[in-house]
Amino acid sequence: MAARSALEETELAEIHRFAVQLAKDAGQMLLAAVELRAGKTVREGHVEKESAVDLVTQTDEDVEAFIRSSIQAKYPSHAFCGEESYSKGGSKMYLIPPTGPAWCVDPLDGTVNFIHLCPFYCVSIAFTWNGEPMIGAINAPFLRQLFTACRGQGAWLNETISLPLDRSPIPPLPESAPKGCIFSCEWGKDRRDVPNGNLHRKVNSFMNMAAELGGRDGKGGHVHGVRSLGSATLDLAYCAMGSFDIWWEGGCWEWDVAAGICLLKEAGGLVTSANPPNDPSTAPVLDAHLGSRLYLALRPAGDSATETGRQTQERTVREVWRRVQQLDYNRPGVQ
Amino acid sequence: MAARSALEETELAEIHRFAVQLAKDAGQMLLAAVELRAGKTVREGHVEKESAVDLVTQTDEDVEAFIRSSIQAKYPSHAFCGEESYSKGGSKMYLIPPTGPAWCVDPLDGTVNFIHLCPFYCVSIAFTWNGEPMIGAINAPFLRQLFTACRGQGAWLNETISLPLDRSPIPPLPESAPKGCIFSCEWGKDRRDVPNGNLHRKVNSFMNMAAELGGRDGKGGHVHGVRSLGSATLDLAYCAMGSFDIWWEGGCWEWDVAAGICLLKEAGGLVTSANPPNDPSTAPVLDAHLGSRLYLALRPAGDSATETGRQTQERTVREVWRRVQQLDYNRPGVQ
Questions:
Q1: Most A-contacting residue of B51, B117, B222 (CB-CB within 10 A), to test interface
Q2: For A103-139, how does the pLDDT look when each residue is reduced to its tens digit (9 = 90+)?
Q3: The domain at A9-162 falls in which architecture?
Q4: Where does Mg(2+) bind (chains A, B) (predicted)?
Q5: Which residues contact B275 (CB under 8 A, 6 or more apart)?
């Protein structure tokens, strides 16, 4: 297939079925690893929670090895980018090929949650074609939530419920957005207490989104709620469900978001850059680059009496951009 | 029964079965209300998301009316305190009677989530005796998570999995806690941008917990992750599972926490005041007052080589107290 320039629909459907089965099987591996830890008895000494980190790394690697070998057996010509194999290379270059077929896989997103037996972890499998996510399969086995999507075909929860959650018509975003919205965000791993560092920029942005209208020198957004799950993949999936209205985050990687972006777009959502442009009120709302590490996602939105769904999304993007600060997560090869 | 001074074990077991069935039935009502909204078609005009607030209030009231009438039919002498009926009274007094049997019910915790079709909502039913929560039944139907507990009997997920998640032995809290912990917190409803108001005090406290060790003038706690679900009840349930290590919150009410406190204590957790005493390093770690609106919860913790589980919890309480600010959620009749 790698030699062909176009991807046929029947082929895409077959790859979709294969990806969904992979996500189911990998999800079972994650669940089994948790059950093993939860139920295990230790004859002497004590299980220090910190030591679970090693176990988790082993699970990460086992699940990625399973997914990679399954893909290589069925589609030997496809490129493969997985979190664990990527991390072993020293480069931080963006490696999804701009042409042809590739897979972008996070065997375990929400690792901290997994370590703590907290339900918000999942496997994330994306198939890309010419650099674009075409198929997404996300399985959160403890939550019993399987999210799947195929370009042009739609997005589903547990294979039967259309996203966004079967609503007809899909509600527009609130006229006063971000007021009335659920805002999802993550504290992330950069915890340096540097006055202008990412942690302070993030929390200033969270505060702007949360504070009353008129507060924060006019930047108060008075969102309906602020949520943090600790999984970028699930944040995107919950946007696709319509459960989160807005997700704003910097610092995650392509394997964290590739399947989720496919899911969200198929459900009717929008993903652009977390970092506000120089003129947030007029700059075009461009699709986020998969490797940009900076994402602002909006849930699917229906038309209102005065705007199209896309217009309500773009209006909300600009209102978020007006309230958030630039984050610094640059990498070589991606602007 | 109200006339008796002691509660017999057989009676408690019967009330437990009744409470669990109530939580199951009420959970089905919540799920049906969501499915009705998710699947409904509107012939003309548009479904404004904001208007869903009315629907939710109706669901709140319907579920509470069902629970209240069920209890009154079976236990006519028991006192009843539910969020909806309480809110209709003008008083903010604490109404759980100090003697005899009573029920403390939130028909729908996580209302904002429910409005947004976000999975983190639940019904919370507690039975108290002489002011103490004896039975808790919490049902999060979209998550398919039913949490139940009975004083002296234990705590369970979906009636079969013992909390904290069947682990044997239960791990102690990390030696360097709060480092290594999952910290759960909520942004809440008080969004006033007042320099020394609750929003700023909360976010300063969150920042202290999140920032690197040595940062924030020595208050950096470098927690492993910061989570916000938007439901106090589920925060407590997730502590009881062992998924969250620490939950710190002010502003919620007794119906938000009564069942969760019963659950967490039965699992082996601890609940004390969110507000640090004058001397956090030596003050006794007292049980939180059910009506205090200020809660700091610690997950169940096993013994380490050098400390009992209770000692690791108390040590962690003091480390949290050292990093958080006083919150102001006073009410008449409760210190």
A1: B117
A2: 999 999 999 999 899 999 999 999 999 999 999 999 9
A3: 2-Layer Sandwich (3.30)
A4: 83, 106, 108-109, 256
A5: B250, B294, B326, B327
